């Protein structure tokens, strides 16, 4: 299952990653706006729900307390009527008679104490009945006050009052039956009532007094007949029986509501730690998805509870409806903002799309120039760096072309020199043999050196050679040149032996030495001629070669022009003409050519530098990276070659 979720997340991430930036930005805006609005909306509407429930609880608790106060007032009225009735000593005496009274005595009781009790009931019209019950067989019944106990012997509470010694009891009944049973075939009308049952005296033979009050007077809000579709009050007696106004349809029309109310009421009783507490308790529950509130208040004197069942469905539905309306309004607003944002992003990202299209064309080779995007911001900065990248690419291409051109130039020069190379080699060998036969060792050695030079020049197998090979070529060149001079050129080498394996460009030192030989000393000069080559590693990764001659040097202004040529070696417009002694024309293979090749193959930080002092010396400094083609031994090689 976890693997499946990971795959789904990966697929979704891949799908999102392939969407355009504009689509992802709009989706991000929607999420940024929608999620907080949903959270805030739910939070505030939950607060509204809680506030409504709290208000409903407070309001209906107040109604319940008001009903409880009405019931307390009626309880006092009932108790007062019962107390007045049994406080008449004449009534007590009559209930205790031991023999039947005469007619005159009975008339006296009927018009005396009996009428007084009737007046108590008359003065309190809410009292339905005030009756005295006795088991004395000598007492005559006097309707509607005095009755035999046999008329109530079937009542459930009668045995409890007679046998358990209970002195007072409050009883609820769903109907008010006719104890005289005058209409045995009639079904008594349903008129719920509450009755106070109390002993008349201290003995069991003294009889009972019953004071009845219809619940519509006793609890006017519960049984007042007021039609309310949002709530209903219920009285629960000590045995758990429910007494409610059946004319109201609130509880009777909702299937399962009464059963759930009973269940919730029992839970509240179980959670109540103090049975004698008069604390009002409440709970919230639901039936078939509809929310209700149950509030219960104890009536201690009755050992009963009055309940208020309140429907929260209507108000909560209105809150939910308002919530969905606001959410729908938010969604519509977010969609509208998303459409506006989409078009604004299309305008903002237009330059980015232009840049993307240009990159695609560059990749295909269709465009070699940059893109003109004005303005700042990230896109402008990206376009600026893209243009710099294009310029760098073009420079690298041009550099590669120049490198190839220089290489071809050197190769062509070599190829031109290779015309009939075998004929020249054979001719030189024949002349060398004749010189040896004639005993001309000098001529033979010169021919050997010349042949070595020609082979080195003609063999163009690559750009790089060992420094040892380049030095050998220079020695051959000096040997050949010394044939011209009466005072031979002295070649002094100060090169550590391990540096002989360094990598150098082929034909890089020879043009410098050739330049010194051609321009260092005037023709016919008889002074000593010396060329000194020093190799030094001033830095770990850089090699410096010094080529110094003791010739006539270079005039200051010509030296400046030569340095300008070397500085602008990659420029298209170069100074031309003769640079004087120590110089070479721009089109030849001389100092400029060597300098250009070093920069092309090693980098712009490497190359040649020329210093000279007129009449004393010329010093050419060459720098290149330290690269060994093979390992070199230790020690130091210093040699002096003379003609």
TrEMBL record:
One Pfam match: HAMP
All copies of domain HAMP, residue ranges: 346-398
Coiled coil: none
SUPFAM superfamilies associated with the record: ATPase domain of HSP90 chaperone/DNA topoisomerase II/histidine kinase, HAMP domain-like
InterPro entries on file: Bact_2-comp_sensor_kinase, HAMP_dom, HATPase_C_sf, HATPase_dom, Sig_transdc_His_kin_internal
Entry keyword set: ATP-binding, Cell membrane, Kinase, Membrane, Nucleotide-binding, Phosphoprotein, Transferase, Transmembrane, Transmembrane helix, Two-component regulatory system
Topology class, membrane: Multi-pass membrane protein
Membrane spanning residue stretches: 25-45, 324-344
Gene Ontology molecular function terms on file: kinase activity
Compartments, as annotated in UniProt: Cell membrane
Name of the molecule in the record: Sensor histidine kinase
Source organism of the structure: Paenibacillus ihbetae
